[in-house]
């Protein structure tokens, strides 16, 4: 039998933990060694708080955990005040490692009868609440280089649900939130995932038969959540449906689609090709917007090529930067220590250590980088990144043959590498010029190499180019 997965030394915040799913999560984590903040406002399913004449739900759960030998404290704040919930964790246990955004309410009503208040309350609790708690914990997790976050979606968000437009919008929005946090936190060992649970709780008993509510015990969801927040779980940015012992991972699918040339893109041609546009026979599984950008780049390239044929004189200025520094030795004399020297040197060390081998079959391209001091200025240095041959390499100088060439200022290049400047935005804003194979160009993303932070520059000490 495999060793028990435990949470000794970890501090977990579970919102909406006074009953149902949240209570099940809190109990399981505490049983396995975690110190737990049991958060519950004590409100009704619709979000109303009606006095405190009876024992607060959070207190009840805390006492249950303590009787079983666990460690827990209660918090009664609304999730809108995420900073107060996180403060409870820090005051009681010194830190926070795990956030499970579980709190939620319902305001089910058809679109015809929905009020702004019905909409706003749902957004306030589900979206704003999840953001507020995660935001308050985020810097703590970044500084310690560890964090696990769970956001709670719903089948209503994934597939839509009659009379739940407000709830569905918030729930699908939470997965977008998850995917962004997963990307931002990955380099700091912060992982974030989404669950869409099916369980018998106060919220689902309004739409399910009593027998089904009793059969769909929250305890059948808790093991998945516990694994997703454990050290050993590799998942990040994923969406899972779970209930009654069944667990599955969801993902998006994209049809093969139709690529129209600018000349052919008409309303009539869209109608004519509709059956192909919506045909998933040869569908793909997109993993990022880069997949879409590859198609877009092909059309931009085709449009530019067509424009060049129609008006060749207008295209004359564009190739100029390529001719600025044809020799491989000229750039080195004029740079005198550009920041890119250190960044490309770090990249070379990364590849020399064999850490980039998985990139070769994935990227299979050679890139040239023309670096300038100012936008539109003279090319001061040219670098080559070879992600096509061997284990990859980085050199200073113009490559014999590049699949794609990027031209940008040293400041913008550094911004892209650090993740401060989005490559697509840089291209659209004219901060990054691209020549060559546009499809290949889209495969070069900042995620390919470690960001040139002080820590990584020290870890992958710049090699001589």
From TrEMBL:
Record Gene3D superfamilies: NAD(P)-binding Rossmann-like Domain, SCP2 sterol-binding domain
Q: Which GO terms describe its biological process?
A: fatty acid metabolic process
**Alphabetical keyword list:** Fatty acid metabolism, Lipid metabolism, Oxidoreductase, Peroxisome
- Which InterPro entries does the UniProt record give? KR_dom, NAD(P)-bd_dom_sf, Peroxisomal_Beta-Oxidation, Sc_DH/Rdtase_CS, SCP2_sterol-bd_dom, SCP2_sterol-bd_dom_sf, SDR_fam
Q: Name one Pfam family in it.
A: adh_short
Q: What is this protein called?
A: Ketoreductase domain-containing protein
Q: Which family does it belong to?
A: Belongs to the short-chain dehydrogenases/reductases (SDR) family.
Which stretches make up the Ketoreductase domain?
Answer: 10-206
Q: Which gene encodes it?
A: Contig5078.g228
**Annotated compartments:** Peroxisome
- Give the start-end ranges of region Disordered: 303-336
Where does it mainly reside? Answer: other
- CDD domains xref list: hydroxyacyl-CoA-like_DH_SDR_c-like
Q: GO: which molecular function terms?
A: oxidoreductase activity
Where in the sequence does UniProt note compositional bias of the Low complexity kind? 321-333
Pathway listed for it? Answer: Lipid metabolism; fatty acid beta-oxidation
**Gene Ontology CC annotations of this record:** peroxisome
């Amino acid at each position: 039998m495999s060793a028990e997965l435990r949470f000794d030394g970890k501090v977990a915040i579970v919102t909406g933990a006074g009953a149902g799913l949240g209570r099940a999560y809190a109990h399981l984590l505490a049983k396995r060694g975690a110190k737990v903040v049991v958060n519950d406002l004590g409100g009704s399913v619709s979000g109303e708080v009606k006095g405190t004449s009876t024992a607060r739900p959070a207190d009840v759960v805390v006492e249950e955990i303590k009787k079983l030998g666990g460690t827990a404290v209660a918090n009664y704040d609304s999730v809108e005040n995420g900073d107060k919930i996180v403060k409870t964790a820090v005051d009681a246990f010194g830190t926070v490692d795990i956030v499970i955004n579980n709190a939620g309410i319902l305001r089910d009503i058809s679109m015809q009868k929905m009020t702004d208040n019905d909409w706003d309350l749902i957004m306030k609790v589900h979206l704003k609440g999840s953001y507020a708690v995660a935001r308050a914990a985020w810097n703590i997790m970044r500084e310690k280089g560890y964090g696990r976050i769970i956001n709670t979606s719903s089948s209503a968000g994934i597939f839509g649900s009659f009379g739940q437009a407000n709830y569905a919008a918030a729930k699908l929005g939470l997965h977008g939130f998850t995917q962004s946090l997963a990307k931002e936190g990955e380099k700091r060992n912060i992982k974030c995932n989404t669950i869409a649970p099916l369980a018998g709780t106060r919220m689902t008993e309004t739409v399910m038969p009593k027998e089904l509510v009793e059969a769909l015990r929250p305890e059948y969801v808790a093991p998945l959540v516990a694994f997703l927040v454990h050290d050993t779980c590799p998942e990040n940015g994923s969406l899972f449906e779970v209930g009654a012992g069944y667990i599955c991972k969801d993902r998006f699918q994209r049809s093969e689609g139709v690529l129209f040339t600018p000349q052919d893109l008409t309303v009539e041609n869209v109608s004519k090709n509709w059956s192909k546009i919506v045909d998933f026979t040869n569908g793909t599984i997109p993993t990022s917007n880069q997949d879409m950008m590859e198609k877009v780049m092909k059309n931009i390239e085709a449009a530019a090529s067509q424009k060049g044929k129609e008006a060749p004189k207008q295209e004359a200025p564009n190739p100029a930067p390529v001719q600025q520094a044809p020799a491989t030795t000229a750039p080195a004399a004029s740079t005198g220590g550009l920041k890119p020297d250190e960044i490309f040197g770090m990249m070379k060390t990364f590849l020399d250590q064999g850490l980039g081998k998985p990139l070769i079959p994935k990227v299979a391209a050679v890139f040239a980088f023309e670096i300038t001091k100012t936008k539109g200025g003279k090319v001061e240095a040219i670098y080559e990144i070879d992600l096509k041959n061997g284990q990859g390499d980085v050199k200073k100088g113009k490559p014999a043959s590049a699949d794609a060439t990027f031209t940008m200022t040293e400041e913008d290049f550094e911004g892209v590498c650090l993740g401060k400047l989005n490559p697509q935005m840089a291209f659209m804003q004219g901060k990054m010029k691209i020549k060559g194979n546009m499809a290949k160009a889209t495969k070069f993303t900042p995620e390919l190499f470690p960001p040139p932070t002080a820590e990584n520059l020290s870890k992958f000490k710049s090699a001589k180019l």
